[in-house]
């Protein structure tokens, strides 16, 4: 299932808000449609929104009506700013836009039409590199999974959250491709149910045994010794190895630590932000309270209730057993070992 397709000179986004019931693509010819799709999580997942934003900038470039390079660049920066503002936590979004702008600004090309072609090349490169990174991550990560491994995951860090194959679910896929019997416990992941709607769907599609649990069941499942390890994705990892990921991840990490179960994070280098020294500096997106008080348009809580709805939390590096990257499996001390594989973002 391709969440992101560039076809016939426009971007097609699988509307993930309609899964698992309906597979419907959003046809984007305007960068504002891409921005709106990222905001409402029609396309979501750190690497996926980075790739979508890169293609969104390509669409924006086509909408700038000038042949003057300076004016073109000024308007392109403004469009990039609108795309960057859609979601604050996943660093891949900013990383992809910065990479696109860097490619344009370091090009000596004066012909705006040729610049547009260079931008499309760069967006394709971002997309293709993400799939390759996921496969390399899977190759390294599957070494951590013995035959018969029972893996708990939270949210969706699969093909739908990336350009394809997945980060956490890429490790699961790679283990299966090696002939290992691996099964998955998927946290439903309130409030938007990425686990129930997306991870469970991906695993069922692939014939990988998956058991859906509510978020509150993870602890008891571990206490019953039914989990061999936890693997999650990430939206931003700081230089010291702190991890921002979907809300609820921190609780799963604390439980895993209490039950002495390995807690792994699978993420490409594009998710590691070396400009931030710790997780305290990560901007955490807060979303519409209606995501918590309503489900399928039905009120689940009384009017007047207060709501707190952070979309992410931060797991301290002390609870992270290892970080699975396309450069290999990174163990503590993270500050030292991440610096060895990452170039500073800035
Ligand atoms: C492979 S990154 C997936 C990451 O992104 C998700 O957040 P959202 O669904 O809000 O975009 C979640 O944190 C996943 O772990």
From TrEMBL:
Superkingdom assignment: Bacteria
Keyword line: Amino-acid biosynthesis, Isomerase, Methionine biosynthesis
MF (Gene Ontology): S-methyl-5-thioribose-1-phosphate isomerase activity
Gene3D superfamilies per the UniProt record, alphabetical: translation initiation factor eif-2b, domain 1, Translation initiation factor eif-2b, domain 2
Keyword Amino-acid biosynthesis annotated: yes
Catalyzed reactions: 5-(methylsulfanyl)-alpha-D-ribose 1-phosphate = 5-(methylsulfanyl)-D-ribulose 1-phosphate
Alphabetical list of Pfam families matching this protein: IF-2B (PF01008)
Pathway: Amino-acid biosynthesis; L-methionine biosynthesis via salvage pathway; L-methionine from S-methyl-5-thio-alpha-D-ribose 1-phosphate: step 1/6
Site entry (Transition state stabilizer), positions: 155
One annotated GO biological process: L-methionine salvage from methylthioadenosine
Residues given in the record as substrate binding sites: 44-46, 87, 194, 245-246
The protein's Enzyme Commission number: 5.3.1.23
Active site, renumbered: 235
Family the UniProt entry places it in: Belongs to the EIF-2B alpha/beta/delta subunits family. MtnA subfamily.
Its job: Catalyzes the interconversion of methylthioribose-1-phosphate (MTR-1-P) into methylthioribulose-1-phosphate (MTRu-1-P).
Protein name per the record: Methylthioribose-1-phosphate isomerase
Lineage: Bacteria, Bacillati, Bacillota, Clostridia, Eubacteriales
